[in-house]
Amino acid sequence: MDYNHIEYKKPFYRIKANLKEHLKNYSRLEDLPVSYENLAEYEELFPLIDDNGKRTLWHMAMYNQENLNLLSKSLVEVYQRLNSDGDDNTYLRIDRIDFCSFGNSKPFRVRVVHEINGNYDYFYMKKADSSRIYGLELEEIFSPDKINYIVDKQTLVEEHIVGIPLDDFIFRNKEVAIENRIRLAKEFVKFNERTFVRLLGDMRAYNYVVEIIQDFDNIQYHLRAMDFDQQCFEGRKNIYRPQFYKGNMELVKLVQELMTEDVSRQYQRIERVSMKKRYLASRQRTRSLLRIMRKDRISTDKNIKILRSELAEHHNDTDFLKFNNMGDILNRHMEKMLSVDILTKSEILK
Fold first, then answer.
1. What are the residue ranges spanned by the domains of the chain?
2. CA–CA dist 265, 83 (Å, integer)
3. DSSP element (H, E) containing 96
4. What is the pLDDT of residues 141-173, one digit of tens each?
5. Which of 45, 64, 209, 310 has its Cα between 20 and 30 A from that of 163?
């Protein structure tokens, strides 16, 4: 069975009024001075080359000077809103705008430089759709990380997530003995559990990063998703489990080598307890999101039927078979995995 089959041409689902209201309530909705469509008005694209002389998936976008001046001023303002609540900083300038045509969101990556000290940062502008917004919100609630983003109509602005993509990390350490391997194995077990509980798909090796943390006496690792396109869209259950992707096999082998099944299950339980605590700390926000999600359309009938059938078997719960949208499926799945009642009976009946 091919668990790596992903729908590259996932349809875009427009952000509806009730989801916009949720975003407004939690300070995610703003009127921005520039849109994704404005960035798409480039004149030429030049391929970007990595340090090894190979072409990347990114291209540098070129604009006419008048358009570039307008874009630069607006993009600096967007960066300020994203990171400092709009505080003025006259020392910032836009150094480069890159475009990637790979995947669904076709992002622009904007590089911002501080002219005084040369320090730089990135942020992204993407086409926004409902499934990606639900993914970002669920990341904010159920992961140990906070994620900064802004939505304006069909434009999504996301902060840069720091780390090394797993495929790059594996390549760099091909002939190297990774320090503190047991901690990396533990983190993969927890990451695998976290993505399955909240049904975030497509965690192939280039869609999440390894953050390397120097502790006082050793190295720590943290795995973090950086792509949220496939939130509750795909049908196959195992698409939501990173352990079944070929590119993640090095970490799967590491877990098998260093952990017994009992230890692995213990780390899974620990992660579920942590997610339950995060839900309890954000109960109102979670309920608001799921109420909206249950009335929204973010997948196909085919995918919904496949996923509800596989999760009914996984949980030995035939109630899954009566659900006709991903919001209901996700709600019931998380309740089963976290041993909580998320929505009240009156909310479910609405």
1. 17-159, 164-349
2. 38
3. strand 92-100
4. 999 999 999 999 989 999 999 999 999 999 888
5. 45
